[in-house]
Write a structure and sequence with these properties.
The protein is built from 15 helices and 24 strands. It has about 500 residues and is α/β, with parallel strands linked by helices. The protein folds into 2 domains: about 280 residues, 3-Layer(aba) Sandwich (Aldehyde Dehydrogenase, Chain A, domain 1); about 180 residues, 3-Layer(aba) Sandwich (Aldehyde Dehydrogenase, Chain A, domain 2), CATH 3.40.309. β17, α12 and β18 form a beta-alpha-beta unit. It is globular. Bound molecules: nicotinamide-adenine-dinucleotide (NAD). Nicotinamide-adenine-dinucleotide (NAD) binds next to α7 and α8.
Amino acid sequence: MTRHAAVVDGTAVDTRHWIAGRRTESATTFPDSSPIDGRPLAEIARGTAADADAAVAAADEAFPEWAATPRKERARLLHAIADGVADRLDDLARVETADNGALLRAHQRSVMPRVAHNFRFFADHVRALDHEDFTTRASGSATGPGHRNHIAWDPAGPCALITPWNAPLMLATWKIAPALAAGDTVVLKPPEWAPLTASLLADISAAAGLPPGVLNILQGYGAEAGAALTAHPRVRRIGFTGSVATGRLVAAAAAPNLTPVSLELGGKSPLLVFADADIDLAVDLAVQQYDNAGQVCLAATRLLVEERIATEFTGRLTERVAALNPGDPRLDGTDLGPLIHPRQLTKVDGFVRRAVRAGARAVLGGTVDRSLGDLYYRPTLLTDVAQDSEIVQEEVFGPVLTLQSFRTEDEAVRLANGTRYALAAAVATADAHRAERITARLVAGTVWVNCFYVRDLRAPFGGARNSGIGREGGTWSFDFYCDVKNTVTAPTDGGGHG
Ligand code: NAD
């Protein structure tokens, strides 16, 4: 490892910024280490406000030409990037696992393929936005019969994209792909705890022929590089995924410039299990919530189980979770890797200790498994928790689930909707009418019935309440990343005043 080059599990990573198609340094660096075993991985360029300025200037300069590039050509380049991701899938998967500790097999089989798919999907979807012209007819809701309305999805300008560490490249490309497809240019600020794959994406985009300045990567800390980007007056969109606390700072920084902000924030999703549910399926869904050691915004960390089956459900779940195999995320047999960082572990452990002090019972886990390393938190299940307690109300972002029981549908809905978060919810029931009744009453951006994590990229994604502002996915992404413009043209015969 030299100052600006690292070799991570056999892959060379340049740890400088990528601005205007060139690698640039900062005066200082910050260390990046692997959560798997604590080994140092790299020294990363520590971006300053001046670096942020240079990155936005590069994006601004590249914007007119990129915006004027035909959609078809932009799509070709995005597909070329997707091909580059597919070619380097294994490198990307290995580097991501070394950096954030999530399972290698998940990165290889689903996450990195999804990264490539993000580019392909938005490259193609943007073309579906054409052909929205319509002619005004005489009616009570419109004036000017015969006038033509032409809707254009114009590129908006340079976008600042800021993303978290739990699925770094997947979440970054979920924003980069629609922004580039829309004709915007991008400055990405990757997460400081997992900054490496973003740098590989810069290499891939250059090899694919993306023009300099269209995609820029600014490394650094949130409070420095991130804050400078969000306050920048030449940034036209801020796409942010991260915590509620940082979301507030981002919104405040955007306010003086009135920069439109998309916020994808935290969650505390409920999984409602009714007595009529297929109990094997319901237990499967609950076990899934320990994926990525619980470091998933969508995770349904609040299990709400109908009282009649609560004992049986808890017993079956406990058995299954006890059989999970925590350990090195690079090994195929591992189910659960480490937490990302000592600070995350301290946070998770603090939540659990305070919950137990407040009367919760740890049916499973509640401690660190030191036999594996410093960051391996045992999958934890807490019962005897009060609805207004911290452990039920706050996002833990670790492998910690709570279990509460309910007697009636009303009570289930009240508990489910009873936090400030509303990112997702899931319902396990065999009764389709019940599913309809319950889902209609749940407050959440996404509701799953008898399934979880199923995503179609055409669907809107985002959160209600404190879980976010706005929706991304399909046309919703373009709604955000474009300046939508309606042009009304009078009929050539000059008539139609109304
Ligand atoms: P975080 O808010 O601490 O950091 C997210 C990003 O913001 C990082 O890149 C960080 O450097 C940057 N940042 C920090 N301070 C900043 C500032 N003042 N100005 C600008 N940028 C700043 O979140 P995290 O701990 O990295 O990620 C975990 C959180 O992300 C959880 O709350 C999780 O629920 C949420 N998340 C949400 C979604 C979603 O789609 N809703 C997806 C994944 C994660």
